[in-house]
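@channel anyone free to eyeball this complex?
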Amino acid sequence: MSRLSRRKFTALTGATVATACVPLFVPRALGQAKPKLVVIGGGPAGGTVARYVNKDAAGAIDVTLIEPQAKFTTCFFSNLYVGGFRDLASITHDYAKVARGGVRVINERASAIDRERKTVRLAGGTTVPYDRLVVAPGIDLKWDSVPGYSEAAAETMPHAWQAGAQTKLLTDRLNALVDGDLIVMIAPPNPYRCPPGPYERVSMFAHVLKSKGHKRSSIIIVDPKPAFSKQALFMEGWEKHYPGMIQWHDPKLHGGIKGVDARSNEVKTDLATHKAALVNVIPAQMAGRIARDAGLANETGFCPIDPESMKSKMDPNVFVIGDACIPGDMPKSAFSANSQAKVAAMTIRGELANARTFPARYSNTCWSLIAPDDDVKVGGSYEPGDGKIKEASTFVSRKGEAADVRKQNYQESLDWYAGITADVFG
Amino acid sequence: MSARVAAAAALAVATTSSAAATDVELGRYLATECMTCHRAATAGGAIPNIFGVAEATFAEIVKGYRDGKLPNPVMQNIARRLTDQEIAALARYFATATKP
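replying in thread with the prediction:
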């Protein structure tokens, strides 16, 4: 050591200690209250992170889940309800098992986050303190992204992009159609929840019309995008199962979406005015309001995150997961939300309970039903890279696949739904 | 090197590999990815139950997907980024963990 100056020695020792402490963080004093994790939102992102931290921390962390609904209808698989393959009860879940596992469940709306004081205010006025906060509010709809559309207009022209009453309204309206009726869907611009979802929904519309013996009914998709997820697969399936029933109007064809009139049930584009029996408007989307109000979103309306941890780039004590975050190359899906929640849960246990951490890795698969037993899938693996969650490898179903492969996909999707909902809700 | 030394060296390597491979904590973390689909799985479903599968069988199947010898793009994609050590950790975890 003789050749080392005192300053160098101190600096080196300090660095060693600091490095050694990085994964351990500051040990909590004996007798101090248990660290607190608060989760806003009880969907596939929030439910997963609450349950995983609670279970794996084995009592070392107090976990509170704040979700306004006592029963949660999943947006994923709601198209299968529209198509008559599931009932609403089968896609609706409560939090009894989450609470029995030890998570404190508060069925109240979180109205504001105070990031300075590290508290969440509930609609009733109570404040809930946190050491780490997970914000998973899902999406809000940009009502004015389609001229003439509004929350009130959604009672006539349902969006059904947040599941529950809207999904039932859309399905009831679908089932009341008579042969010769026209359905118009306005598809959303990127980025939005569940990229193949609008096109699976159109498939379900067509399946219902076909099942009821409609010969003259038709469906027009007015799309602000020049292309969409699994496009070749959907188009092949539509031609096979519902020939001539579905038209897809891309921006080159319709020339621009001018707006809707909820009173006359009309959709206007530069190309034409469509007077429809049923209009399904899926507007543009943004992170849930509480995330935006808390300053966690950027100019895109969604929340930037650190791909290594799912921490908000705006606040190291806050994580944003699920549809509200900017997930890099990952799609906004329940599978992605569940995957992101597990990375967040691991990081939180590392910080609050000194648990061992591992490099983040993510995955996703989206199944889409085109017709009975004809299901296609797309998916990928993702890892941190280039400052975002970066695609590592992907796959997608192929055109012209054998019927047994497509049927197997459908069976997989049923098992996946059972698995992920057990993962989220217990 | 005598046969005895070679055998001892081989044993040491095997022991080292085995120690590294039995990182159940790593297996537990990696398994969270599997749980999304396999959590509610039953023996008769399209997605099988993988809890209680013998370690060697588990490793052989996952390597089969990784090498493209077994079909199913979801599993091939998941398995492709797993190292032998990670597969061993997963195999140990699922062989010993109780299905929730």
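from a first look: The first strand of chain A starts at residue 36 and ends at 40.
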